[in-house]
Here is the input.
Amino acid sequence: MIRFLINQESVEIEDVRADLTLLQFIREYRHKTGTKEGCAAGDCGACTVVLAEPNADFSALHYRTVNSCITLMSAVHAKQLIFVEHLSNGAALHRVQQALVDHHGSQCGFCTPGFIMSMFALYHTNSLPNRDDVLHALSGNLCRCTGYRPIIDATLAVCEQQADDEFTRNTSSTLSTLKAIVTRDSAGGDHAGNDHAGTRNLIMPRNRKSLAKAIKDNPTAMLVSGSTDLSLTFTQQLKSIDTLISLSHMDELKACTTTSHSLIIGAANPIKDITPALLKHFPQLAELITRFASLPIRNQATLGGNVANASPIGDMPPALIALNAAILVDNGIQKRTIPVTEFFVGYRETALKSDEWIAAIEIPFLNANQRLAAYKISKRFEDDISAVCAVFNITINHGIIEQVDAGFGGVAATPAGCNALHDALVGKNFSSKACVDLGKTVLMNAFTPIDDVRATAEYRKTVLANLWHRFWLENQSDTTITTRVMNHA
Amino acid sequence: MRKLIDSLSLEQSSHALSSTGQPSGRVHTSQKHESAIRQVQGSANYVDDITEPQGTLYAAIGLSQCARGKITAIDLSAVRASEGVIDVVTIDDVPGHKDIGPVFKGDPLLANGEIKFYGQPVFAVLATSVFAARQAALKGQVTVDGETAILSAQEAHQHSAFVRPSHRFGQGNPDTILQHAENTVSGALDIGGQEHMYLEGQVSLAVPCEENRMNIYTSSQHPSEVQKLVAEVLDVRLHHVMVDMRRMGGGFGGKETQAAQWACIAALLAHRNQRAVKLRLPRFVDMHVTGKRHPFSNAFDVAFDDKGKIMATRMEVNGICGHSPDLSDAIVDRAMFHVDNGYFLGDSDIVGHRLQTNMVSHTAYRGFGGPQGMIMAEAIMDKIARHAGIDPLLVRKRNLYGASTGTKTPYGMEVEHNLLPEMIDALERKANYWQRREDTAKFNRNSPIVKKGLALTPVKFGISFTAKHLNQAGALVHIYTDGSIQVNHGGTEMGQGLHTKIGQIAANEFGIDLSMIEVTSTRTDKVPNTSPTAASSGTDLNGKAVQNACITLKKRLAACFAKKLGQDESAEQVTFENGHVVLGDEKITFPDLIQAAYFERVSLSTSGFYQTPKLAYNRDTGEGRPFFYFAYGVSMSEVSIDTLTGEYTVDRVDIIHDVGNSLNPAIDIGQIEGAFIQGMGWLTTEDLKWNESGKLISENMATYKIPAIGDTPAVFNVELYGKENAEDSIYHSKAVGEPPFMLAISVWCALKDAIASLSYYAIDPQLDTPATPERVLNAINEMQKHAVTSPTDLVAELNKSSEA
Here is the structure.
């Protein structure tokens, strides 16, 4: 049974397909057509809806945008689903709606409901956002008509006010309803080992023991967390998925802890939620995180999913490689640790055994001698996939390079490190011109990338070499040279 | 009707005036988009949102998996056996016309014996759900005897593959001048196409009616053509097909001819099964099967004097048209009409080829070939500037149409009322061109990695369909007995605000509040034989037609009012203002007069018509006036490029644009901003890629990148020029849909300016479009190979080039 709120209405659903998307549910089951399908792949944001969820102690609601076209019904359990039809109160427009009207922010109007929902979430999240905050909040919404200027202005204007609407007024009743669902979940327990959630072939385990059993009982089932990539299997490739094991309710996969020497991130934590901890310890990853897809994707996609996917163009694996991260895996009985460099064994293949899952990712802290930078190069700055990603982490002692750890994306069949770079540079004086030339030469020859829709092999190689040049320039002590056309942090 | 609405409530509604005492919604004011409130609420319905008729079924199409060859077998047994399938059709099942080419033949409804491009629709399937239909469509087995596909301009030329004959026009004798001139330069440019990426994909709903009648709900810029093609495919008369089009979720030219095929397929399946059928293309199918902006491959030779003034121009434009003519003849013509942009090209020879390739048939897209021609003029200006060592803005100003150059275009039209000299002066001052030119140079001297570039470019765009017969429009205006008015016209609403402006025109004519006007969906049974909403002409044509209808009604009402007052002879003095109809000291509220007129048996409904005057172009001689007038704009862009990666940002944009006497400044500014960003996308990140088999590989939004919100320039100043149209257009406004698209050429020129800074502006970089970071980096690397290292070398280089 999936229990949730549609605005103020309590809803229970069962007997729906495991691969039913939230967008299909809204349009085809609820017959509400304000939410649009533009791409069915999480790229355009026309389908954006908001999921409001309680914070840990049920004292406040957190408003999260998601792309309903690639969200599964398991994701709405114990949450409040809000879509565009819920915002206006009869003829009275919600403030974000009125602001967009006043600023002439809609033309053809097809993207508009999605923008409205992203504006609504920001309105409830951030008072007094600046222009960059607005751009980040709306980074997952494409508009082909307006050129965005009026939408930016409308959002800035409406967010000058403290959130005050039906939703804030109903917060306590919403919280208590959602709390009742959660309480019922825990009281109901998990005695069967699996919680079939009442829906056809959608299993929602709540602890590692029942997850292990679910995997054992359903050896062909896919594990799903954020579903931002897996959903394309049915929305784009039109393949039905028989059985899904959702990790959405595995609280033990969502912990985010630190040890004396490392940060440990639970695998099923959305990227958005781990961002503060990650950037606290690794502020140099700010650009990579900001440019990790779009906000609605980061609101769902998890670090575990990004790693398990093993895509050569995933955003986080190059950083994890450069940071010497370890993948903590589990099968319900035994946990083990796999160095990230040994985790990616082939094109979209990992070292995970069939009964294992990723429990967490452990990233060791940097010491004072380490310099870290993460670069992503793509056609478009926002919501694009890397042509090349390069993350450099070098240890310098008294000006001499002691260790080079680097991770790269878009250059091979898997995310890759580059031992040759380490071998060539160790012992060299970091500030020497020879250091930059040597690194460039190594990187020009280290990989044999492919030509594809994003870039040619030649461009990838050249840029890889030039990113080392950029890194070198940015880490010289006496430099004031501008190396970037855009600051992302 | 026995009883009319109580006139007390009419009093109230007719007095819904703004605080100024004027009715709201007059022309020349910034009215909200007529659908804005419904759009933000999600209650504005698109075709996929219409409540489905009982028993609606869903269609999907099966695509070819190769680019060219003879079909030897089509096995659809697995499709028929697939779960939920009701019907499957191929071209053999079409009762009427099998070809739906809009102007010339060449576009079979479904593949007819041969495959002409990768992804060509071969069959259609009808099923009980969208998913079932789409899954079944993957199961067709099409066997093709493959042939070598033609996939580039070079291959098309080699095989003399053209979809239409080449065309040529020009003035004087450029060859002689080019042969003897001291200064000549040549250049070539590959210009990428563009995916429309309307957020709402192609969709049609066909609802069968009694016997063989058919109603179509479609997302189309051209309902009349959909009506005609559906009738032809079904082999019925046009009067048995009704097409209804309320709004599109974006069109941009991509739903001018490209919407018809899906309507026809839905109608065919609806007709066969006597069930309502909806066909909505998933995004990747939409991207494979619908035409795009034409890629072009163009080249020029120009001769110029020591001041950079052009003496002669030879230009070849090559439109890559795909497999069929579609609208390519007119598109390549429009490219040819715009290779001059705002400049006098001297003696000229302009030739345009329409190349046939085994690709989807490229089609209309905002600017309709104009951008692909106009960019050549700007390429020439930059090339001359670098060659002559003169600032590009000076070269541009020296070559503008005018007394010191010439006023006759290569196609023999006199350029009248040219606003570019004054508009350039205005922007140059407002955006501080020369100061920022110095600042840019200074920045670049001190910044070895990041370089800035600056460019100011003009736009002159011809307004009118070049196919003269399309420059007509019709309208139908009803006044109901409560004084509310329903306006119908032949134009379609795709977000551009056409219906808003039309509503304002009607409100203005009757002097009543905009809330009294309802502009309805576009329907072929209300206004027949309409032109597509294209060529930026929607308001110019339909606005005039609506105005004409309003004038007719006003005459009847004025006569009625005058007669009522016993002043029949004074009917011409009756005015319509502030919700009243006035004659001398007598006035009556508009609804009261309507009721009186009804009782007097005055017709309260009429049609209106308009045809654009002054058009006289002879294509055979390449001489005459294809355009009613020109719309102008000027734009200045500043960019930063990263010479290590080729990444760049557009930091600041200043625009002054000419919309004549704006009907609705907010909507016009929206058009300008939106067009600019779309044009910027075309020239920067929007990169169409086909693989060696001819398959489109930039087939979704993950691999084809339109501008995102962060690409909006941080400083983006847009101003209307505010000078009324010298021609008698609707309230002396000007068309605005397409012209500002080409303002984005300033971004491309600014990128080249930044790259050229590496050579101290001695070399004009080769930068084909789209100028992706990869292309920019290649141009940078190429420049660095030839780069001069100091201003001293620059002088030597300049001397060398002027000797050459």
Summary: Residues 2-167 of chain A form a domain with the Ubiquitin-like (UB roll) fold (CATH 3.10.20.30). The longest helix of chain A spans residues 171-188. The first strand of chain A starts at residue 2 and ends at 6. The radius of gyration of chain A is 23 Å.
